[in-house]
Amino acid sequence: MDESLGRRLWAAVLTGIPFGVFKLGAGWHLYAFVNPVLGAVIMAWGIVDILLNVLSVPLPRSLSYCLLSNIGRRIDIYTGRENGEHILLAVDTLFTFVIVAGMIWFRQLPFLPVVLGRLWDLSVVCNVVGVGAERLWQALHRRRA
Question: What pTM was estimated for this model as a whole?
Fold first, then answer.
C-alpha cells in the first residue's frame, strides 16, 4: 500500500492500534476466564499488531499494519498477485469487530482490568471518531473532484 506518512499515521493511531488493544483485551479475558493458552495467543497477536502498526508508519515498504496483512503481503510476493494483503487486512478487521461485538454482547467489558478497560474505551472512541472523520473527508474530497 502506497500511502502518505499522514495517512499511515492516521490509520495506525485511529484503527490499527485500537484493533490491537481489542485483541489484547479479549485475549486477557480469555486468559483469565476461559482458556489461558488461547488467551495468551490472542494477547500476543494484539501486541504484535500494535508493534506492527507503530513500525509500519516509518517503514511502509517493509511492513504492513498487522500480522494478517503482512502474511497477505508475503503471499502476494510469492504468488505474484496483489489482493492477499487487502483480503487478509479485511479478515483482520472482521475478526476484530467480532471480538468487540462478542465482548459487548456477552457483557464482559466490566471484567477487564481498569487500565485495560480504559484503553478499550479510548480505542472505541478513536475508532468511531476516525471513521466519522474519514467519511467526512471523503465526502468533502468527492465534492471537490
Answer: 0.92
